Amino acid sequence: MGTMTIDLSPDELLSTTRSVRKRLDLTRPVPAELITECVEVALQAPTGSNSQGWHWLVVTDAEQRAAIGGYYKKAWYAYAEAGKPAEELYAGDDARIEQQKRVGDSARFLADYMHEVPVLVLPAIHVPGGELPAGNQAPLWGSLLPAAWSYALAARARGLGTAWTTLHLSYEKEVNELLGLPSHVFTGVLLPTAYFTGDTFKPAKREPAETFIHRDRW
């Protein structure tokens, strides 16, 4: 790896790789070799039976980004209109309500400006036979999504921000056609990637681990 990475401990890297939306630098180009380095790191992730059936769509063309961004924006606004307000979802928890409002505001920003993010990365997986299994799909996506998260971590270590998004899948057929994907390849996530503004990130507020741990049984 030729690029110097940020001096972060493993725990710092894992706890400060946040979804970056408003702080994505929409004007600063991202070198292609930096994206390649992040993918190289991602390719060390595990896959079922060591199949390595992944593909990485790296979109920098302005027209392609505009088209993908258009689908994403339509999907986001439909999703937002169908959802319940934070006041209803978290009634009585003022801190959570305010947090969710901030998240919603930044998510709307990303929807409006996705087309301006300099690099859109769509990790995809080869599906034998070209049809997603009707039953358990965990082995399939388990061979892609760990690598996608490794990409996000590698990007963070190189001063880049990403956001984990999947709303483009509301227009999966259209996006696949736009990207020229063969019928046996399916995207699993859309990772807008750019340099970020500001200094750094801090861990998000979470409930204590014991809130979620079940020992030996539920």
From TrEMBL:
Which controlled-vocabulary keywords does the entry list? Oxidoreductase
Q: Which CDD domains match?
A: Nitro_FMN_reductase
Question: Could you tell me which Pfam families the record lists for this protein?
Answer: Nitroreductase
Q: Tell me where in this chain the Nitroreductase domain is found.
A: 16-188
TM region positions: none
User: Which InterPro entries does this entry report, sorted A to Z?
Assistant: Nitroreductase, Nitroreductase-like
Keyword DNA-binding among UniProt keywords: no
* Family label: Belongs to the nitroreductase family.
Please state what the protein is called: Nitroreductase family protein
Species source reads: Fodinicola feengrottensis
